[in-house]
Known about the structure:
- The protein is built from twelve helices and 13 strands.
- It is α/β, with parallel strands linked by helices.
- The longest helix has 16 residues, at about 10-25.
- It is globular, with a radius of gyration of 22 Å.
Amino acid sequence: MRYVSINSVPNGSTGAVMRQITDERRALGDECWMMWGRGRAASNEHECNYGSRPGLYLDVLQTRLDGRAGFHSKASTRRLLAKLDEVGPDVVHLHNVHGYHLNVEMLFGWLAAHEDVRVRWTLHDCWTFTGHCAHFDCVGCDRWRNGTCGDDCPQLSAYPKTFSRASCAWNYAHKREIFTRIPSERMTLAVPSHWLEGLLRESFLSAYPVEVRHNRVDATIFRPTPSDFRERFGIGSRCMILGVASPWTERKGLGDFVRLAHELDPTRYVIVLVGLNAKQIKSLPATVIGLERVGSPLELAKIYTAADVLINLTREDTFPTVNLEAEACGTPVITSDVGGCRETIARKDSSIVAVPLDAGDLMDALERVDLGIRHLSGGQS
């Protein structure tokens, strides 16, 4: 079987999922290709980067102006379709079709015309069935349920950013028409959480079969990995509270961490945030250790292992990988109870906690986590 996977990028969390699935299909004897529109160049004949840097910049600019994310990048999409014609796939597995790299109308036109090609589509967020955004929990928007997307969208400044107030209704109508061109017996949707499955059941994609496939992390990398991280950063015996995101925004809880830092006793606690940009690092309180994005997964595993607890204060998330990575490294997790976060709790014990965002004092959650250290009781380690 010829199996083609398509994603915006070959790396990151969605790229990792694409690679995992590709490896699984190859193990079953399928001939597999991975194709993407942004990122590194292809390294072998079974990979294809159909995008270009000028095309990316042009798509971003056009989307800023007209708000029609996913309806540009025609040249890149022609290269992708030419590659699909060359390969002649039996299955096309879609991942993120948004992200300034392809034209969804052209792609779904090709898929609809090739009636012998089966389609599997893994949705990593909510962009597919909204008029604009990839997530809407933070603003409590439910216009996607009935398509009442007007010119007063509260998230035009959120990804994918635009100045166009008239784009949301246009996007919703065209997505609904384009994404439902393929018969339900030929396309299966896959999601990483039951939470996202529930939303799909209420969307215009409700006629399609949906499978829940929880994301996994590479256990050969994310496992307890000792290092000298605590010594290098002068953490000593203090309780190390870790936060990981990329990029860091208010929706990822950056402000909440800053406020938490002011509440904690710096002789007993230290907060380490990974994935910040240089400007954000400069603005942090002196009691917070800020690091830029860690390029090596192995280095990240060392940081997870060094931490006493990972706190994930995301305001909206489908199925946060950072929770899984920390758990795999043996680190307890306190996660906000939004979206699919609760479903990341692998260990049903007191070391993993999901808390409402309005829980108030995070110290209460810290006290409820069985960390196995004596910082919380005032002792010495």
